[in-house]
């Protein structure tokens, strides 16, 4: 059964934004009182957070697909949709997040550090938010956009100050158990340790963490054994401790040859750019199992040779704890020196300068592409692609609104400069995108039927007259009656008709 996983792929799907609502407010004596459609809610984000309580990526090995909540739809009476809940993915401290191309996105080395892995979709605006002095009654709303979806790689690199390296069964796990409160699995067969073990060493006023790297054998850097899977855990360590077995019974092995093999594997392992190669880091030698008489004799024999090579050597026993105090103080000195260097480099690091966006950056670009069916013009940019995704192409008025937005952004001018003419094929977005037969002027059927785009005569009509209008109408009626009486008097005087004497 798998109990430790330090590299997984996760498939993420952020929440989709909710659609906006098309609604008209109803009031007494005014059934069409204006738009009141609310906006849709935003989709939920997916955030990766470094959690010190998590020690493995096993949970994501079992369930690699994670999805955030979608945003709610807008409703009438100005009611906005609910935002999708944020999805938190806790990972161990020391996790590196990489994209599908293997590029490092973030290195989560601090507890509580957060990384926005997948951004949720944007909720669409309702027709109330789209209304303006020129567009008093929009008959459409914007759709919500899809959240980000993709695959990320999570790679765990153990954060420890000192790495214990050596052949299997050299006593690395026993050394951690003797120096700290860690309780790793210990047995007398090779590859007992199947995952790195961490321990905290407290000696006087010094406190540092140690980790053993299991499975290092000849050819580990090329994938042999378990070493290649766990060599990445050495990258963050500031010092190395070579644990050499002086009581091995395997033919052809001795502390000197074991050291040469391990150093060759460490030298062959490529570290990330900007980090110190493994063999250039401070190193100590621990000759282990000197509680065995033959092992003590061998340790006394090889120690002068190791010191002649420039190594600092300690003879130790994890059973009797002989030499562990001196070794702990020596490791503490290396760790303190490394921390001081890191602090000096942090203080002297250059200040990060944020560059503002260029003033002449239009937010899009037009790329002519040739093909067997003629030249097409591809429009690429965050705004045009998002606007197309938000458009309901079954609504002519919404299509006209999209044309207005693209024209104001300068897309039509850019198409003309790129050589597009009426009837040219225009694609907005990468890949298949959305295809148009471009016309410089777009008129929707809704405008032909009901006037200017965004207007609705049913909403704009007002049958109630003002006092001034009533006064003017009254005077006009009185003047008309007076004129009618005068006309009748003129006809009577002309003898066109006579009054009946009876």
Automatic annotation (TrEMBL):
Residues 160-336 form the OBG-type G domain. Keywords: Cytoplasm, GTP-binding, Hydrolase, Magnesium, Metal-binding, Nucleotide-binding. It is an enzyme of class 3 (hydrolase). Its EC number is 3.6.5.-. GO terms for cellular component: cytoplasm. CDD domains: Obg (cd01898). Residues 2-159 form the Obg domain. Its cofactor is Mg(2+). GTP binds at residues 166-173, 191-195, 212-215, 288-291, 317-319. Mg(2+) binds at residues 173, 193. One of its GO terms (biological process) is ribosome biogenesis. Residues 453-502 are annotated as: Disordered. The keyword Transcription regulation does not apply. Monomer. Belongs to the TRAFAC class OBG-HflX-like GTPase superfamily. OBG GTPase family. This is GTPase Obg. It comes from Leucobacter massiliensis. The lineage of its organism: Bacteria, Bacillati, Actinomycetota, Actinomycetes, Micrococcales.
């Amino acid at each position: 059964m798998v109990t430790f996983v330090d590299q997984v792929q996760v498939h993420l799907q952020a929440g989709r934004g909710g659609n906006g609502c098309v609604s008209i407010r109803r009031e007494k004596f005014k059934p069409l009182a204006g738009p009141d459609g609310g906006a849709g809610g935003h989709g939920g984000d997916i955030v990766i957070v470094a959690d010190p309580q998590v020690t493995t990526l096993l949970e994501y090995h079992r369930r690699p697909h994670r999805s955030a909540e979608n945003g709610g739809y807008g409703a009438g009476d100005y009611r906005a949709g609910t935002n999708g809940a944020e999805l938190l993915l806790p990972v161990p401290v020391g996790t590196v997040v990489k994209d599908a191309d293997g590029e490092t996105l973030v290195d989560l080395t601090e507890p509580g550090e957060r990384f926005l892995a997948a951004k949720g979709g944007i909720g669409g605006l309702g027709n109330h938010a789209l209304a303006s002095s020129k567009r008093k009654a929009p008959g459409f709303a914007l759709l919500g956009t899809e959240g980000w979806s993709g695959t990320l790689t999570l790679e765990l690199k153990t954060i420890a100050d000192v790495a214990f390296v050596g052949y299997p069964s050299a006593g690395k796990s026993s050394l951690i158990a003797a120096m700290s409160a860690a309780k790793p699995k210990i047995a007398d067969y090779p590859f007992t340790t199947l995952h790195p073990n961490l321990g905290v060493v407290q000696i006087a006023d010094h406190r540092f963490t140690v980790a053993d790297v299991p499975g290092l054998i000849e050819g580990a850097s090329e994938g042999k054994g378990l070493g290649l899977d766990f060599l990445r855990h050495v990258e963050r360590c500031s010092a190395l401790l070579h644990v050499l077995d002086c009581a091995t019974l395997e033919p052809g092995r001795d502390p000197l040859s074991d050291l040469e093999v391990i150093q060759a594997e460490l030298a062959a392992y490529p570290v990330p750019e900007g980090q110190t190669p493994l063999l250039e880091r401070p190193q100590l030698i621990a000759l282990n199992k000197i509680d065995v008489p033959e092992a003590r004799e061998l340790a006394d024999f090889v120690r002068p040779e190791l010191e002649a090579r420039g190594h600092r050597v300690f003879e130790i026993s994890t059973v009797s704890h002989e030499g562990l105090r001196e070794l702990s103080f020596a490791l503490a000195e290396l760790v303190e020196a490394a921390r001081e260097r890191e602090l000096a480099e942090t203080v002297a690091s250059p200040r990060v300068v944020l560059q503002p966006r260029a003033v002449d950056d239009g937010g899009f670009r037009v790329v002519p592409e040739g093909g067997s069916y003629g030249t097409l013009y591809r429009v690429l940019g965050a705004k045009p692609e998002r606007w197309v995704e938000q458009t309901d192409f079954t609504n002519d008025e919404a299509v006209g609104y999209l044309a207005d937005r693209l024209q104001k952004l300068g897309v039509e001018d850019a198409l003309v400069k790129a050589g597009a003419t009426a009837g040219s094929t225009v694609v907005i977005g990468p890949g298949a995108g959305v295809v148009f037969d471009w016309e410089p002027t777009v008129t929707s059927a809704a405008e032909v039927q009901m006037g200017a785009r965004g207007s609705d005569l049913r909403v704009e009509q007002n049958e109630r007259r003002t006092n001034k209008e009533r006064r003017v109408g009254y005077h006009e009626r009185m003047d008309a009656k007076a004129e009618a009486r005068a006309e009748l008097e003129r006809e009577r005087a002309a003898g066109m008709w006579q009054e009946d004497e009876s």
